[in-house]
Specification:
The protein is α/β, with parallel strands linked by helices. It has twelve helices and nine strands. It has a seven-stranded mixed beta sheet, sandwiched between helices. The protein has a two-stranded antiparallel sheet with strand order 1-8. Helix 7 runs antiparallel to helix 8. The two termini are about 30 Å apart. It catalyses: adenosine(1518)/adenosine(1519) in 16S rRNA + 4 S-adenosyl-L-methionine = N(6)-dimethyladenosine(1518)/N(6)-dimethyladenosine(1519) in 16S rRNA + 4 S-adenosyl-L-homocysteine + 4 H(+). This is Ribosomal RNA small subunit methyltransferase A.
Length: about 300
């Protein structure tokens, strides 16, 4: 975004402060729940920063997952063309439009609400989104981002606030101790970078962990004859026992240790290599070299951060 097109400053009066968030929650009889990972942002400067770092502007159609009481929604609306908000909590979904009409009546027509579980959303009412900007519930952050990148190819940019550990894992590079399944699957769709850190005191209630901003810039996936599903199955197998060399880790996926070695050698990979050393392009080559007729059973991924 050029300086000329820089996002307009949004006055505090058009945003939700800490007192307003609590008052609104009390009026709606909303108690933030661990079930839906709810932590509401109560700091105006934080939502302004998210919008600024996201780089969205007047031509963008933004999808926001988990708008909650509307803190980030109110920061987005004056800046972008349109916001589609996806909210699972029926009370919050019912109140969001009223909150916008009250604080920003001039922007009420720019908001469209979708009352649904983001993990089940595969279609959105038009116009097509160009960006995903959200303060995501910690417990579903990785699967939500991957699902939206998969189902909405018009999304070119993503800026999400997630648990700092998750942000670091998503942005990790090959060779890092925290590099793994989330890093690789995100890299199938986009270039991913850690875009900032956020303290605990900007939330109500304050979480027990720090948060991080993570940025995605979509690019074309690796050139390969293997499907995305094939590549993701290969990744899951490689990290199910991440300390194993790939010859052993991919044995079930390929049909046998010898078949795994055959695929690895064909892809130009030393069979003694471990998955954490390889990038997404290399995994695509391995998946492409998988012997025909090998079993198709998908290994059971560990719950933490492993998703397709």
């Amino acid at each position: 975004m050029t300086k000329k097109d820089a996002a307009p400053h949004v006055d505090d009066a058009a945003l939700l402060g800490a007192a307003q968030v609590r008052e609104l929650a009390e009026r709606l009889e909303v108690r933030p729940t661990k079930q839906w990972g709810q932590n509401f942002v109560v700091d105006a400067n934080t939502v302004r920063k998210i919008v600024r770092v996201a780089g969205v502007g007047p031509h963008d159609v933004v999808v926001e997952v988990g708008p909650g009481l509307g803190s980030l929604t109110l920061a987005l609306l004056p800046v972008v063309k349109h916001v589609t908000a996806v909210e699972v909590d029926p009370r919050l979904a019912g109140a969001l439009e009223e909150t916008v009409r009250s604080l920003q009546p001039e922007n009420a027509d720019k908001l469209r609400l979708v009352a649904a579980d983001a993990l089940t959303v595969t279609k959105l009412p038009g116009p097509d989104p160009t960006a995903l900007v959200a303060n995501l519930p910690y417990n579903i952050s990785v699967p939500v981002v991957l699902s939206f990148l998969q189902h909405f190819p018009t999304i070119e940019r993503v800026l999400v606030m997630v648990q700092l550990e998750v942000a670091e894992r998503l942005a990790a590079k090959p060779g890092s101790k925290i590099y793994g399944v989330p890093s690789l699957k995100a890299a199938w769709y986009a270039d991913v970078e850690l875009a900032g850190r956020v303290g605990r005191n900007v939330f109500w209630p304050a979480p027990n962990v720090d948060s991080g901003l993570v940025s995605f810039r979509r690019r074309k996936p690796p050139k390969t004859t293997a499907s995305r599903e094939d590549v993701f199955r290969c990744i899951d197998a490689a990290f199910l026992q991440r300390r194993k060399a790939l010859r052993g880790a991919l044995a079930s996926w390929a049909g046998s240790p010898d078949a795994a070695e055959q695929a690895l050698v064909a892809a130009g990979v030393d069979p003694r290599t471990r998955g954490e050393q390889l990038d997404i392009t290399t995994f695509a080559r391995i998946a492409e070299a998988r012997p025909e007729g090998a079993g198709t059973a998908q290994p059971r991924a560990r719950r933490r951060g492993h998703t397709s």
